[in-house]
Amino acid sequence: IGIMQAHPENEDWTCFEQSASLDIKSFFGFESTVEKMAMKQYASSIKKGKEIIEFYLNQLEEEGISHVPRWTPSLDAPSSSSVTTKHVCATPNDATSNDAASQPDNQTENQTGTPDDKLDADYIKRYLGDLTPLQESCLIRLRQWLQESHKGKIPKDEHILRFLRARDFNMEKAREILCQSLTWRKQHQVDYLLETWTSPQVLNDYYTGGWHHHDKEGRPLYILRLGQMDTKGLVRALGEESLLRHVLSINEEGLRRCEENTKVFGRPISCWTCLVDLEGLNMRHLWRPGVKALLRIIEVVEANYPETLGRLLILRAPRVFPVLWTLVSPFIDENTRKKFLIYAGNDYQGPGGLLDYIDKEVIPDFLGGECMCEVPEGGLVPKSLYRTAEELENEDISLWTETIYQSASVFKGAPHEVVIEIIDASSVITWDFDVCKGDVVFHLYHSKRAPQTPRKDPLVGQHSSSTTPGGNNVQLIDKSWTIGLDYSMVESPLTCKEGESVQGSHVTRWPGFYILQWKFHTMPGSASTNLPRVDDVLASLQVSSHKCKVMYYTEVIGSEDFRGSMTSLESSHSGFSQLSHATSSSNHSQSSSMISR
After folding, report:
1. Please, which of 162, 171, 380, 570 could form a disulfide with 577 given CB 3.0 to 4.6 Å?
2. b/e for 526-539, b at 16 or more Cβ within 10 A?
């Protein structure tokens, strides 16, 4: 319930009150989970309401309106001098169209961009769909920002557009989730997943899902026979991580198929249709660890593959499903709910059913069609294939630590340090790191002495190895050491802001121990006064609990393997160059670093 009213003590103040109540009697043992979902939805609703109010207040301020008379009821016609506001964000696409919603024609010129800020009309129609001038400008600006700041694989316009649509073309929000997704893809090498991931035989035999032709709109069609799937058996035999990787490979294949279908049908196709058959669904599918794994998979997919689900067809829903749907649907985003079509029993065979969305020739045989479907029929996974918790944990670690990148936390007063021992002078130390949270200062030191053994898990590598996957925060420089005596600085300090990517290299002059250090960045105070500046205080508040996070990779390359000048970090033996192709440096310097924002 939301109420807006004048403040009882001051008529110039407007109060907004919001309240909600929820009484959960029974939800099949998942009462606490539903309660958490409700709290999350309620908090999101409050946040959205605040954003809407602030949005229109900012619009009034931009138009020079500092006062709006209090509304009073009147029997006369509305005054023609009433205040109007201009919408600056586009609405997202609906379930049946990739075209963005139309916008009012009274956009201001500075919102639609300059004349040079345009895409080719044929290109838009062929690959992106109809875009308003504002939406086109948002896409161009976000793409330009990525080209200037992101030193990695730049997503295609179609994929950037998905993130913009997922945030109603709000540039800041879209950029935030897109950067997080790109960092995630880089960390886990998702771009190479289709080439490197091989499904275990258990998945090939018992995972009841697969691609099957396309729907009437040309969207790739994925079929999931969830009612026939032994979710408990798959989790016990494979673990969460293998299932997650398999689902990610399905989404990557979906993106590839969308590109193919765009070329085949000559129109933009950016999402796919999913058909879920629930025949056979029963209480065993509500096994708690299985539900936990499903929720985690959904969370990862929603964060990294937005606006890829065009339509979800749920067939042969059991009798209990309408009750569950009535309880769950309020917690699902309205735009997402529009993509759900639910059929009980054989209703999908009648008017408004499956034939409205899928050609008769490709309806699977198990749904009464004539097309043979290669999706496995599933069945119970033999218990002989079950793995122990220890085996699954070890396999999960090996799956997600195949990435060459490490994660570390940096705290105020507790830097993270990595040591590399150099035996041969003139070796090249390379580094590549992303500042995921907070601001840090990067240092590179040299010492003839071996640093102290870390008190936590051993992280000191051998020659070109830096840390183990479990590394989090390690200090190696002894408190008693004196700079200039026990160790020396060989790189100038480099301040790195949140969201920046840094690539660099250093040609070593002496053997010994080189220490890479990421240190918490403390904002300097004003030189003219001992009091901190307002900007410094506000900046410090943005770093939660004085904690920063970096994701990094280091490698030592022999001078004979370091090709050419300092303008390249390519190496015939280096995996570094696969993820960061663009690196620059000075030809006359012994070291180099490049920051991208």
Report:
1. 570
2. eeeeeeeeeeeeee
State residue 566's pLDDT score: 32
Is 328 within 8 Å of 291 (Cβ atoms)?
Answer: no
pLDDT category, 567, cuts 50, 70, 90? very low
Q: 62-71, 347-356, 558-567: which range is least confident on average?
A: 558-567
Return the biggest CA–CA distance within the chain. Answer: 90
Residue 69 confidence (pLDDT): 75
- Pull the structure tokens for residue 462: 């051998």
| H or E element at residue 315 | strand 309-317
Give the pairing of strands 309-317 and 272-277.
parallel
In terms of Cβ atoms closer than 10 Å to its own Cβ (0-12, 13-18, 19+), residue 445 is buried
Surface-to-core class of residue 210, CB atoms within 10 Å of its CB (0-12 exposed, 13-18 middle, 19+ buried)? middle
pLDDT in tens, 414-445: 999 999 999 888 888 988 787 878 899 999 99
Q: Which token pair is 162?
A: 């998905």
The pTM assigned to this predicted structure is: 0.55
Residues 277, 366: contact at Cβ < 8 Å?
yes
Q: What is the C-alpha separation between 106 and 425, in angstroms, rounded?
A: 66
CA–CA distance, 310 with 128 (Å, rounded to integer): 15
The size of the chain, in residues, is 597
274 close to 216: Cβ distance less than 8 angstroms: no
The pLDDT tens digits of the residues spanning 473-500 come to 898 998 889 999 999 999 999 999 887 7
User: Among 135-139, 403-407, 494-498, whose mean pLDDT is lowest?
Assistant: 403-407
Quickly list H helices, 482-573: 534-541
The 8-class DSSP code of residue 170 comes to: -
DSSP H helical ranges for 170-320 = 171-187, 193-196, 201-206, 231-238, 240-265, 288-304
Q: How far apart are the C-alpha atoms of 283 and 285, rounded to whole Å?
A: 5
| Alpha-carbon dihedral sign for residues 480, 486, 492, 494 | negative
573, with CB counted inside 10 A (0-12, 13-18, 19+), is exposed
Helix or strand holding residue 447 (H, E): strand 440-447
Contact yes or no for 107/114 (Cβ under 8 A): no
Whether 501 contacts 150, CB under 8 Å: yes
**CA distances from residue 321 to 30, 239, 283, 314, 469 in whole angstroms, order as listed:** 15, 27, 11, 10, 43
Q: Are 410 and 456 in contact (CB under 8 A)?
A: no
What mean pLDDT do residues 371-380 have?
89
Distance CA(200)–CA(185), nearest Å, equals 22
| Token pair for 210 | 């697969």
What is the strand order of the sheet 501-507 is part of?
406-411, 547-557, 428-437, 501-507, 591-596
Confidence of residue 41 (pLDDT cuts 50, 70, 90): confident
The angle, 0 to 180 degrees and rounded to 10, between the axes of the packed helices 171-187 and 133-149 is 40
DSSP states of 50-107 as a string?
Answer: HHHHHHHHHHHHHTT----PPP---SSPPPTT-------SPPPP-TT--SPPP--S--
Which amino acid belongs to residue 486?
Answer: D
Q: Which tokens sit at 353?
A: 């059913």
Beta bridge partners of 242: none
- In the chain, the amino acid numbered 220 is P
